[in-house]
Design goal:
mainly beta, eight-stranded mixed sheet, five-stranded mixed sheet, 1 helix, 20 strands, about 0% helix, elongated, Arrestin_C-like, Arrestin-like_C, Arrestin-like_N
């Protein structure tokens, strides 16, 4: 018997699949049939149906029609050291619409050829950005399914990406060296050893050119390290890190820290001094700081400046939190134009293969 259903697709008008909160999600469900296909019954299925509910749907005709379901959800799923499963979920979109038929009517008969069923939905404001992590995610997708009279069910699902923009020009608290504000800096004076008599300290001062960036830019790191101690400093290093915190039922259930990029310099002998002059630490494609609108997953970024002694003593770390945004600062001569060289919004990093690298050391 020749195959009747040739195509069953969910097609978005925006082929990039990237949307902002407040925009319209529009497109069509496309069905192409080879010959007369009477009594096509189309249902939308949830993620998991109880067995008795599946049986009811598979043998009932009272739900005849094409149903369409748009889902936006945040999920945290963690297994504890005791092998206990911790799960939490929050809902951002749960939109359902009927594209064909009315409740109580008989099966719809579709002629051979292509049938297109349009849909349009205004995305709510305040949606968190799409994110996929090791222990949780924020994801958006559309689902539909097509059932034939013989019980054969055709399902389809299409993911789309949401990006909630963060504009550095609207975040004055973290702009840094703008309009005379102070740059972001941190300093420490540390003595190696156990209160060695006559032993001096290592004086370290670190400054960032500002406190907010977008992927594709570079962080300007300046530092002064004066080794007044009797211990040789093996190396100094600046590292960009990402910390992801997962919440479930109001409690922190898991966290992970990754080193994303780093710069390093060589040894500093006792009495010597080393200067970092606006060294550039490149920012790879990353999701924005936090997930505004999501209460289950928190994302934070920091620049750590690390002083590692040659001896077995513990290294010294200076921490400078930064904001990762969507839109960069506008320069004075740009008027309303944004700086070039960023990765947003064309390639929101939903999948981040570099995170399979080893975690950042504590």
């Amino acid at each position: 018997m020749p195959r009747k259903l040739l195509k069953f697709l969910i097609l978005f008008d925006n082929t990039s699949l990237l949307y902002f909160p407040g925009q319209f999600l529009s497109g069509r469900v496309l069905i192409e049939l080879q010959d007369d296909t009477p009594a096509l019954v189309i249902y939308l299925f949830y993620h998991v149906f109880p067995c008795h509910q599946k049986t009811k749907l598979l043998h009932s005709t009272c739900f005849t029609g094409l149903h369409f379901h748009v889902v936006g959800e945040g999920v945290v799923r963690v297994r504890t050291p005791r092998q206990e499963r911790v799960y939490d979920r929050e809902n951002y979109i749960d939109f359902r619409m009927r594209l064909l038929g009315e409740p109580g009517q008989g099966p719809s008969v579709l002629s051979p050829g292509i049938h297109s069923f349009p849909f349009k939905l205004g995305l709510p404001l305040g949606l968190p950005s799409t994110f996929l992590g090791k222990h949780g995610w924020v994801q958006y997708y559309c689902k539909t399914a097509l059932r034939e009279p013989n019980g054969l069910t055709h399902k389809n699902q299409q993911v789309f990406i949401v990006m909630n923009p963060i504009d550095l020009n609207l975040e004055p608290a973290i702009l840094g060296n703008i309009s005379g504000q102070e740059t972001f800096k941190c300093e420490v004076e540390h003595k190696f050893g156990v209160s060695c008599v006559g032993s001096g300290a290592v004086v370290c001062k670190v400054t960032l050119d500002r406190g907010g960036y977008v992927p594709g830019e570079s962080i300007g790191v300046s530092a002064s390290v004066h080794n007044r101690s009797r211990v040789t400093i093996k190396s100094t290093r600046a590292a960009l890190t990402e910390t992801i915190t997962y919440m479930a039922r109001g409690k922190v259930v898991q966290s992970e820290k990754r080193e994303l990029a780093s710069l390093s310099r060589g040894k500093i002998r006792p009495g010597e001094k080393d200067e970092w002059d606006n060294e550039q630490l490149y920012i790879p494609p990353l999701p924005p700081t936090n997930l505004r609108g999501c209460h289950l997953i928190k994302i934070e970024y920091d620049v750590f400046f690390i002083v590692e002694p040659k001896s077995l003593q513990k290294e010294v770390k200076l921490q400078l939190p930064i904001m990762m945004a969507t839109y960069p600062l506008r320069s004075d001569d740009d008027n309303n134009a944004y700086k070039s060289g960023t990765h947003y919004p064309s390639t929101l990093p939903v999948f981040r293969p570099w995170l399979e690298d080893k975690p950042a050391q504590e």
